[in-house]
Amino acid sequence: MVGRRAAAAALVAATLAGCSGGGAAHAKAAPDAGIRTVLAARAASVLHRDPTTFLAGIDPHADRFAAAQRKVFANLAQVPLAAWSYDVVRTGPAVFTPPAAADGAPRTAAEVRLSYRLRGYDAQPVVSTAYLTFDRRGGHWYLAADDDGAASGHRTDVQLWDQGRVQAVRGAHSLVLGLGALPRLKGYAADADRAVPQVAHAWGTGWPGEVVVEAPATLAQMGALLDTGPAAYRGIAAVTTGEAGAGSGAPADRVIVNPDAFGQLSSFGRQAVLTHETTHVATRTATGAATPLWLSEGIADWVAYRESGRTADQLAPELAADVRAGRVPGALPAAADFRPGAPGIAQAYEGGWLACRMIADQWSPQTLTSLYRAVDRGGALDARLRDALGLGLDAFTARWRTYLKGELA
């Protein structure tokens, strides 16, 4: 029986042999074949927790990159990985042109897809893109950098373990992967554990019944994870990432917490945020391009607020102020109204919530969840509303406007 370390070492040996000899046909395939072998050894070393093998594929001349990769490997220690693999999409100058190596070594660029799954949580892999530089030395390919493409817009996706040592906190229905203080991470897990049963009660089955929370230590780190500037999410306590719809499998969603905004919330606010985001996890397989944001964001708030005992005035203060001033919205919130930083974003969320609350109150909660699932199956929203409620879009909008006046005026 071959041990895990021996198996990983064998892959490294294959890497070192993979690009020497073999004639013209081999020379033509050398970069792709050699790079794939390097990455296969790297993937095995991550899964087998073997730092020696992991570092063996790094260019021995790339001291700073090797030091950074040593930290990344250590940062992954507590992450419960079930799978980790790389797929080479393309190589060569069509990807990007890396700067010349200091010693003139042959060099090439590669676009690579990293896929990973968390043990016990992910039914589908999380997939991210990396733009890598490889150097050829002594007939062998080595990984030399992961940031050379940034100058030309080819940025490697940032992962939590690129930002610091990840701690894993397991709850009854949750996994929190985070940076920073352990008590704060335990608090996220406690809130998520309370959120999952609420969501299951409202939405039902057909989702894993668990949630994975990623908790960076700063707003800037959150922005990097989402590949955007931190200002875009300054006032947003959390977001959910993942692929809309997932065929037959549940997608690998992540709830990413903004520690600055989340930390300023009351206990009720923190619970509402994580229940809202967990609802997005539950509804993901029934969410698609046809699902309007007022419905997807509205149902998430409806689940978060439905057992709060709070009034519409308390939960929709911005929209209430508009309605009392005679500024009743003429249409349901549009997608642009939900963009971070959009004027009236609070009113958009509140209006979507009250549209879903109206359906649950005046028809039934089951009607609301059935409508949500039906919308993703395609067809015009007007037709889906008629099927579920007996009202077309115009009549539904008019009824919603009347409902706002009755609840908020």
Automatic annotation (TrEMBL):
Signal sequence residues: 1-29
Entries under PROSITE patterns matching the protein: PROKAR_LIPOPROTEIN (PS51257)
Keywords: Signal
Protein name: Lipoprotein
Organism lineage string: Bacteria, Bacillati, Actinomycetota, Actinomycetes, Kitasatosporales
